Predict the structure.
Amino acid sequence: MVENSNKFLLVKGITGLGDRMLCAAGAMLYARLTGRGLLIDWRDPYYSSDGANVFHRLFTSPVCSPTAGIPITDSVYPALWRGRLDQHAIDIVRAGKYTPARIRRELSIDLGMLNYPEDVLVMVEFNAAIDPMRPYFNGAFAELASMPSDRVAGKVLRNDLLPRPEIRARVDRFRRERFHGRTVGVHIRYSDYRVRIFAIIKQLNALLRRQGDLQIFLATDNLAVKEMLENNYARVISTPHWYAEPGAPIHNNFDGPDRTESAIEALIDIYLLANCDYLIFDGASSFSRVASLLSDAPAENKFDVDPSGVGKKRRWHANVTRMLRGARLTSWGFRILPKLVSIRRL
């Protein structure tokens, strides 16, 4: 479609980096389908330390201009955003105690509709949401019709969402200096959301029994997880970065020294995971999913311990994590984990 310079899609940041990258991929596709200009607003305090738009500190994109500003207009949909386009979605969600379903219903457009008349459309999403756009995969977009949704999202991530050159250079330098031989990437998120760590460890053990020479690249948000793997496996490497107290998330933790640098460190981990020869992850984590979508490893070298992508995130998980952290028992739990699941000492 021909771009209409007077109409825009405005994407508001919410939740963590994996969700945001998937949302950006869906937004880029929607912007192309509708011919709208794309504005991605990540000025919220989760990753921005100074109120600047972190998106353009992390990425370059042929679809999203770093100089375009949010227009001043009342022609906005959803109507709730009229007069509030400069606000953070996070603030509105917190104040209104929005559920994910309500966020999609009241704060975001329906990606299955292309013919909104308003000048500015606002998108708040946790995923790429490719399926609603499928009826429009024709004409110039016909090649997408036969692709699975994850493959479509991966294509957009590769072509239209590129890490800034200085970030790419940090990824390449770490690979050059620390990747020696074949490497298995392991992602373990274990803070506010807890992946299936038992299944990940079992899969890692099974792979190492077959491929004993593999180096392990670990990406995690939990220092206790890092220490556990380093104490029980040889050749474990990870990037240096700031960790919150074990059990506490990094992306919405304001105790860190530099929230923008934390975002950069997380992005570096995603691209390093994507560059590993093997990948073990929990597909219910969007961070892991993005790494898998970006990976060139053959499908048989990617081990998703939750291929349904549904996850096991229950309210009691979050409550238990908070109680353990409050009682300062989170790290202690990882000292007994090797007794609960067989960890191979190498």
Q: What stands out?
A: The chain has two domains: 4-163, 165-340. Residues 18 and 287 are 4 Å apart (CA to CA).
